[in-house]
Design a protein that fits this description.
The chain has 188 residues and is mainly alpha-helical. Helix content is 82%, strand content 0%.
Length: 188
């Protein structure tokens, strides 16, 4: 046998082997394609079932959106009215703040006046006590204490005075009026 014949025999055997492998690969591929087709069919059926179940929900959502559209159209005017109301409330609060500043200044002034009157009354009482002490020739300290005690007893008697209850009178039908502060700002 010649080398060429041996090579030809080896080539024929290799060709037969390649054809057998190709047939086996095609058979496995056909089996895999068949399995894949079955799985794709199952996935498609599952997707169709899911779509069928979701369709009523989508229809209900469409109905809800249709029902909500008029309310959404009314929402913008409502928001505008709310903003206007908040702006007005802010202006009113600023006015209240100005009023409270005025009340605070009046209260501070009243407190200062009360303090001044109290100091003046105390100094007057001390002066009177000193003058009385000089006239009587006694010691100033006990006399001051007695005068302070008398002043305190007068204050206590003023506090213990009972005010008679008011007699119920028929209400007068007078129109009620309210005073409103203008938009007064400081510095104007």
């Amino acid at each position: 046998m010649d080398v060429l014949q041996i090579a030809l025999i080896v080539l024929v055997v290799a060709g037969i082997w390649a054809i057998a492998e190709l047939a086996l690969t095609i058979r496995k591929t056909r089996s895999a394609v068949k399995d894949l087709s079955t799985q794709v069919g199952e996935v498609t059926a599952s997707a169709n079932d899911a779509i069928e179940q979701v369709q009523p929900i989508v229809q209900k959502l469409d109905g809800i959106v249709t029902d909500i559209e008029p309310a959404v159209k009314e929402l913008k005017p409502l928001v505008d009215k709310t903003n206007t109301a908040l702006d007005m409330a802010t202006v009113d609060l600023a006015s209240v703040n100005d009023i409270l500043v005025d009340v605070t200044s009046v209260t501070d002034t009243a407190s200062n006046v009360t303090s001044t009157v109290s100091k003046a009354a105390n100094s007057a009482v001390s002066g009177v006590a000193g003058v009385v002490g000089k006239f009587t020739g006694g010691k100033k300290e006990p006399r001051r204490h007695r005068i302070a005690e008398k002043v305190q007893s007068i204050r206590q008697s003023e506090e213990s005075v009972e005010v008679p209850e008011q007699v119920d009178e028929e209400p007068v039908d007078a129109p009620k009026t309210y005073f409103t502060y203008g938009s007064h700002k400081k510095g104007e």
